[in-house]
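Hi W., the 6-O-phosphono-alpha-D-fructofuranose complex you wanted:
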Amino acid sequence: MMSIQTLEQFVMEQQALFPTAKGEFTRLLQAISLAAKIVHREVNKAGLADILGKQGNCNVQGEEQQKLDVFADHHFMDVLKRGGECCYLASEEHEDGIELTKTKRYHIGKYMVYFDPLDGSSNIDSNVSVGTIFSIYKRKSAEGPLQAEDFNQTGREQVAAGYVIYGSSTMLVYTTGRGVHGFTLDPSIGEFCLSHPSLTIPKNGRVYSVNESNYNQFPTAIKQYLQYCKEIDAETKRPYSSRYIGSLVADFHRNMIQGGVFLYPETVQYPDGKLRLMYECNPLAFIAEQAGGKASTGVIPIMDIEPTYLHQRTALIIGSEMMVDMVERYIHEHIHVE
Ligand code: P6P
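Structure:
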């Protein structure tokens, strides 16, 4: 009989490895886990409760807010504010981050959390998997107002990152730089249980994920790579399979499990790429690299990008190491041909 290890037990065991730890990170992850369970409950009954459809407002991205977007944002903000471990919260749904000065413990929380509360929410009404993505930093400045050095931290300085996928089952996948671990929610006991210890992404794969409708807008090197994917070659098991859900967490998670590469390159509409650095690309890049995969713009590693703006965008090529390498090779050769 398989023994059950909950997320809480797992994190406490990890904390025990650091005798000086005071449990702040454990409490932070418990808060994230609680918000994820609350969102899970609403996502799973969205079709029943009056929570489907559009909120009628637009978020700072100019995107129509889905009711579940607003619901998820509210609950992640609420549990993280009340948890007392954070000094700064930034959400895709708000133009500016929120600096938390005093917490109920009258000390300044040491963590900065950037999150996309419900990524892929435009898919909710069609019952497609959606997700939450979070990225965690430690403040660098001493107590007092946060400084530029706190906001300029690259993805390399994340202390933790993770995502929740609300799909056929609800999973929380996270890393603290010591491998990637996946937990599946067991609603019957209300706990995330360890189901994918030490998750690794296959070094190679046969799946590529891209919105092909943007083909004519892609850089030439990307077009050439997509042609490569379609060529018939038994030795390299091509043509590959094209799989695109249009929900980043769902596309990324499938490639984590099966192997594959996800591409959202620059387009005419999104000359810097569509996806957001701080709360989509950096956290998934941290997870990908910790799982033995790779994440880049096609030219530089995602986690080396210098942050300049909370909602800045970037091109994203992420997944199996050998597949990302191949995309980078096409881009590198093309840059040197032009
Ligand atoms: P497109 C969803 O809106 C999202 O932010 C990601 O979840 C997804 O990968 C991407 O946009 C899809 O964008 O332009 O292909 O619809």
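The radius of gyration is 20 Å.

W.
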